[in-house]
Design a protein that fits this description.
homodimer; 317 residues; alpha/beta; 434 Repressor (Amino-terminal Domain); Rossmann fold; 13 helices; DNA-binding; LacI/GalR-like_sensor (chains A, B); DNA-binding transcription factor activity (chains A, B); DNA-binding (chains A, B); transcription regulation (chains A, B); Lambda_DNA-bd_dom_sf (chains A, B)
DNA sequence: AAGATTGCTGTTACCGCTAACAAGATTTAC
DNA sequence: GTAAATCTTGTTAGCGGTAACAGCAATCTT
């Protein structure tokens, strides 16, 4: 593998100049830079990450904590992870994935954390390295998330546009900021349109949503659309409705939230608010690397736009 | 952060002796080792991975290639990845996740590859670092996989034990070793029991399996059990049957393969051959690290035992 | 008892890179 | 025209480890 020294010889400069051409190009004459870069290309130079890490007292490693139960959230995080990992790789960072914070062996340059619960705040606030959370939070910690409010706004507006008389929100029964945001988005659009909001909440399990439909079927009038806070709930709602009436696509509507795997498994496929998981991953990584580099941390909250993905669980037109 | 030098001072030896106490303890007097280890404990010593990597001409990075379409396989690989990552972290290795082999920037000490297709053999054989595949293959490359044959044997035996008259195999229409193994397991048990094997194959999409049931329903006698080569197909078979007859649990049976997410989404939950994904991940990592350390590579093929997970898609007793 | 062997520890040099400083050349200031 | 400022490049040292070798005492050979 070519080293700085090798490049230096070919370009007839010292290795320090080569190093500078890479890290502080403004300090090197253009003429030299040209020959240095062509030498680098010729020798297929790849910086030695370990050497760089050693001299900078860094590790070039980022830890990604998944604090939620991985069995339940499996499909959700894979794309996020890919987004994170590919962005990091571009900047010669690699990843350690942790599902249990006590296993915290070895050093890193920063943390990306998802699935944080209230009791995690204690140890997270004590971390001495830059941290980025995936998911809104009430602790004034930097985070990246989907614009949850906008997501349910889009969903609710779409339901109204399709002419559903009654638009009901099926929420997740947790006291988390993301849930409040989703409910808010729904409520806002309902109020803008002088409609009465109607919200029901369940733990995030499809069978609870399904049971709800079956238990209250007599009171569920046709031409109702359910805006759900997750695809999991939407999946249950849809199953319940199909059990009671096969005419879902025309008489009823179901809109989910997430757009990760489950929406495609459903038949018909769910109309859903799709989170840009890959881009969210990239954004987490980008924000974290910036915090590491700048060593100065104004609070940053980044919200990415979701996309309404039309499936067969709502009527067309 | 404490360094070897710090330990050395406290233990009144040279840093070389400390290094030896860690890496070649047989060359150091017990007496010194005791004081060195207690100094290490006292100062909470953690080796500097970058320094070690630099001097050993290693990177302490492993690349994990997912060559299949991540959208489709999302839930499947998450647990595998966790298994890999946590094992690697224990030995101070970190991970780079690649979903596109052309993005191959930066060095590593070895590769774990999954979803390899025939056309990938070309570049994989040219890799100069140790490689472990996840998944059986015909190329004499080291691999780790579930014991696929045993999996369908278990499933087929269970179906016969439950008294199903007719046991049909629904395969994936690909010419891959894992599929042959799964079909073989089924065929073997059928022959042991003097039954005629019956195999149908489809691309791995649930709706194809569902369509098959609907199209051939008149020829599908009650008391039939379907052994499927994936949960995806099993999911489709189940949906098809439910559409035709609500009595699946007593008249029909469906057994899937994978046990990753989809089996739990189905209603009733699928009986399935569960792959030990976490352990498979650990095994991939363990095998690869061993190959890196030993620098000598006898072909190794490691098969882990699957587990039959009983759900509601087969009858009890 | 002298030389050879063994067992254990220390010294040196180096892995590839970069910050800090040194130093020469050129431009600017007055 | 000379001193100071600026621009550009090179030299040195060191990040935290480890291999290779040197050195010395204790033990073994014959």
């Amino acid at each position: 593998m070519a080293t700085l020294e090798d490049i230096a010889k070919v370009a007839h400069v010292s290795k320090m100049t080569v190093s500078r051409a890479i890290n502080h190009p403004e300090l090197v004459r253009d003429e030299l830079k040209t020959s240095i870069f062509s030498a680098m290309h010729e020798l297929n130079y790849r910086p030695n990450v370990a050497a760089k890490a050693l001299v900078n007292n860094k590790t070039q490693v980022i830890k990604f904590f998944v604090l939620e139960d991985i069995d339940i959230t499996e499909p959700y995080y894979m794309k996020l992870l890919v987004g994170i990992a590919e962005y990091l790789a571009k900047y010669q960072y690699s990843l350690q994935l942790m599902t249990d914070q006590h296993l915290d062996i070895g050093a890193s340059d920063g943390y990306i954390i998802t699935g944080m619960r209230d009791e995690d705040y204690d140890w997270i606030k004590r971390l001495e390295l830059p941290v980025v959370l995936f998911g809104e939070n009430r602790w004034r910690l930097d985070f990246v998330d989907t614009n949850n409010e906008m997501g349910t706004q889009m969903a609710t507006r779409y339901a109204l546009e399709q002419g559903y008389d009654r638009v009901v929100f099926i929420g997740i029964d947790v006291k988390e900021p993301f849930e409040y945001s989703r409910e808010n988005g729904y409520i806002q659009v309902m109020q803008e349109n002088q409609r009465m909001p109607e919200i029901h909440r369940f733990a995030n399990h499809s069978h609870l949503a399904m049971d709800f439909i079956e238990a209250t079927w007599s009171r569920i009038t046709p031409n109702t659309c359910f805006i759900c806070a997750s695809d999991r709930l939407a999946f249950g709602i849809q199953k319940g409705i199909l059990q009671m009436s096969p005419e879902i696509a025309t008489d009823y509507g179901v809109i989910g939230f997430d757009g990760v795997f489950l929406d495609q498994v459903a038949t018909p496929q769910l109309t859903t608010v799709e989170q840009p998981m890959y881009e969210l991953g990239e954004a987490c990584a980008e924000l974290l690397l910036r915090k590491i580099k700048d060593n100065y941390y104004p609070l940053e909250e980044r919200l990415l736009q979701p996309k309404l993905k039309i499936g067969g669980s709502t009527r067309k037109k």
